[in-house]
Amino acid sequence: IDAVKDYAASVAEGAPDSLELFDLHLSSYGLRKNLSDGDVQALYYTARNMAELIRMGKDTIWGFILKNYYKPIFFARRKFDAIVGNPPWLSYRYIKNTRYQEFLKSLIIEGYGLLSSDKVELMTHMELATLFFVRSAELYLKEGGVIGFVMPRSIFVADQHHNLRAGSIKKPKLGLVRLIDLEHVSPLFNVPSCVIFGVLGRGTGYPIDGTVIEGELEKKNEDLGGALRRLNIRHTRFELRSIGDHSFLVEVDKKIEELTPSGRSDYYDVFRQGATIVPKPVWCVELVKHPKLGIDPRNPYVKTSERAIKRAKSGYKGVVLRGNIESRFLYACVSGSELVPFGLTGVYLAVLPVESTKGEFRIIERGEAIRRGFKGLADWLQKAERVWRRVRGEKAGRMSIYEWLDYQGKLTSQNLRKRFKVLYNTSGTYLVSCVVENKPVTVKIDSVKVKANGIIADWTTYWVETDNESEAYYLSSILNSPVIDEKIKPMQAKGAFGERHIVKKPLELPIPKFDPDDPIHKRLAQIGKECHQKVQKILPALT
After folding, report:
1. Which of 180, 532, 496 is CA-nearest to residue 340?
2. Does residue 261 surpass a pLDDT of 60?
3. What does the angle CA 122 – CA 166 – CA 200 come to, to the nearest 5 degrees?
4. Which H or E run includes 69?
5. Which of 138, 155, 141 is nearest to 210 (CA)?
6. DSSP state, 93?
7. Among residues 98, 396, 466, 516, which is most buried (max CB within 10 A)?
8. What per-residue string of b and e applies to 278-315 under the rule 16 or more CB within 10 Å gives b?
9. What is the pLDDT of residues 200-215, one digit of tens each?
10. Residues 406 and 283: beta-carbon distance below 8 Å
11. Model pTM above 0.85
12. How many CB atoms lie within 10 A of CB 253?
């Protein structure tokens, strides 16, 4: 590569140029004897392109790039006894290029089996560091060689990393042999971290050796001597435990009390994930009062809410939709951010192109809105579609804005004909739950009242609907109990601000079906209702 770059630089400065001269140039470096005629032609083509880049003032790092281009192949043929590294900490969902996403997805599911095909909903959370770990071992490690990577500590507990923990990946045969837990070292990284070691050709057999390091460093990137003086290092062993489908790594002597009877809750299959009402600037709105005409409660004027504008993701910054909308398409929504134990801090409005039929929703697309005379909705959807195509680009052809709004049926599966919704948060440090009534929500602007349908469970929530008031408050009582929150802690991954990813972990515990004849169940329902009443009185002073 250096020889090619030197030749290109001389040609760019005006030196004679021909394949024969290039051949002699390579000979002067002692390289020609190792190259075929085809190799020489390929390198000559590269040299001429590089010379043109130099003339254009664009040659800066091409030699470096070319060297790095072949190094992975060179290393893969050589193989190593040991590999150490700090791979990219990046979740799959942050990859922008759709073709690269598909390539990575194929490797993760079909190539290495890091994620089972029936768990594809976890793909967005998959850490690419895990893929780097197994792929580096396969490509560059000798049989019996050791690989050690600095990794996010979610490897210990997150559902998407179960196959790696359990040693059930398709390839390579790579057994975990040692763990270093760095959760309580600070300052270190923005999220809790660890180091994992594997041996190629060996299976994973628990318990495995490990080390727990704890302590406060004086600063980031402290030298080794200073760090060792401030850190407590304790050697231990780790084992793999599980509750239902959720596995996690813990120290062998750590006490985690088992609940009896064992088994998954009867409610596991009936709780569903909240809708994905995104992009927020397209759907989430607030009422706007006309300075002279006021508000038409049947056809109010709305615009993208300030909340949605502030929280808009890249691509949707500055998107603001305005227009009159038929009130039948206004809905009150709740996300995990509004949930507190036994209560809600509020709701927010959304324009949703849905209507209730036979107990469930169905999507109304723009063509149908035009045919049925819903002018406000049709105009709104036209603007929404335009924004979607502009921002999503090629991805818009793979999934329409309506399919994205109702992804996996998480919107249309909700039923406002049931009297009550029990909600809990899908992520956060603490598990919280509340009961809401599925009744219209009145939004008041001055003396004008506008009724919104409700309530729609939005993102970062799980929900179940019931007509049984006692069952609803019974469930909320249990989900708000400290014992449930304590039991799921070992299964929760941790971020910069503590535990996260609650998802269905509470329902892996044996929460029994509500029994109206059970006095304990009835008492829990009564307590739950009383707590909701108390919180309803307290919240106005806190929000």
Report:
1. 532
2. no
3. 110
4. helix 62-78
5. 155
6. G
7. 466
8. bbbbbbbbebeeeeeeebeeeebbbbbbebbbeebeee
9. 999 999 999 999 999 9
10. no
11. no
12. 8
Residue 493 one-letter amino acid: A
| Three-state SS letters, 115-181 | CCHHHHHHHHHCEHHHHHHHHHHHHHEEEEEEEEEEEEHHHHCCHHHHHHHHCCCCCCCEEEEEEEE
Report the largest interatomic distance among the alpha carbons of the chain, rounded to a whole angstrom: 98
Check: CB of residue 230 under 8 Å from CB of residue 216.
yes
Q: Would you state the structure tokens that stand for residue 321, as one six-digit string?
A: 């939709």
Question: pLDDT category, 402, cuts 50, 70, 90?
Answer: very high
Copy the structure tokens of residue 236: 């231990």
d(CA 85, CA 69): 19
Structure tokens belonging to residue 134: 């197994």
Q: How many residues does the chain have?
A: 543
- Torsion, CA 241, CA 155, CA 273, CA 536, rounded to 10: 80
DSSP 309: H
Measured torsion, CA atoms of residues 378, 384, 385, 389, in degrees rounded to the nearest 10:
170
Q: What is residue 74's predicted lDDT score, i.e. its pLDDT?
A: 87
What are 445-465's pLDDT values in tens digits? 888 899 999 899 999 999 999
